[in-house]
Amino acid sequence: MFEEFKDKVLFVTGAASGMGRAVAVRFGSLGCKVAVAARKPEKAAETVRLVEEAGGKAIFVPCDVADEESVRAAIARTVETFGSLDYAFNNAGCGADGVNIPFAPLTEVTESDWLKVIATNLTGVFHCLKYELIQMNKQGFGAIVNTSSIGGLQMAPGFGAYGPSKAGVIAITQTAAKENAKNGVRVNAICPGPTDGTNLMADSKASGAQDTEFLINNVIPMGKLGTTDDVADGVVFLMSSMSGHITGCALPICGGMQM
Fold it and tell me: Which among 35, 56, 158, 220 is most buried, taking Cβ atoms within 10 Å?
């Protein structure tokens, strides 16, 4: 199953941990060549090792998605190394976790925190899409998945910058999908809910910004947190030929929270 991924090339941002790492390793297990794009070389090196242990090939490409030149260079190196760019998972993000960025109402969000979240979550996706699409349009094929959030579908108090940034990811996903559908390039988004195994969830738990038990018992209809494997399943589906007639979609992976 999924033989179509063998020897294909995947570019992943935010690949040093969490959902990015899980997707990189999953595609490695399917025979993909993976460009592990991240800011932290030590953690990225662990992802590279895990991808190779799973059966894939991998390289680390330094990348700060908020910096356009960094993104351009990372994608150029991916293509130079592996020869093409078949898939991209634009996953790098940040949000109100009570540690790096305060969990606060809109009236208390500082401009610096607003700009930091937008720069990573939305401008970062714009930078990635720009150079991925240039390459994929040359090839005449490609599939891209952007990480939005259930917070991009349903606004929540305390996520004054995060929610709008993730709603913007859905909008730019649909823009890219419409502009490139006839070029053989599909662009979709995933909308995860609270997901175990991510830095955002770990920091939110530690700071008390999110009450896991309350979420499980009162907010998530399926009564459990998502996992990074759940996310990887969704990304594989959206990249594969099983979703060959799907583009511009925002797929909830949230245990029913979208209802």
Answer: 35
| Rounded Cα gap, residues 99 and 85, in angstroms | 35
Q: How far apart are alpha carbons 62 and 86 in whole angstroms?
A: 19
Structure tokens at 136: 């994929």
Nearest of 101, 104, 134, 135 to residue 120 by alpha carbon: 101
Q: Which of 108, 127, 129, 131 is nearest to 119 (CA)?
A: 127
Strand partners, 250: 189
- Decide if 65 contacts 122 (C-beta within 8 A): no
Residues 32-87 have pLDDT tens digits of 999 999 999 999 999 999 999 999 999 999 999 999 999 999 999 999 999 999 99
Angle at 149 between CA 29 and CA 27, to 5 degrees: 10
The gap between the terminal CA atoms of the chain, to the nearest Å, is 32
Q: Which active-site residues does the annotation give?
A: 162
pTM metric for this prediction: 0.96
Helix (H, G, I), strand (E, B) or coil at 194: coil
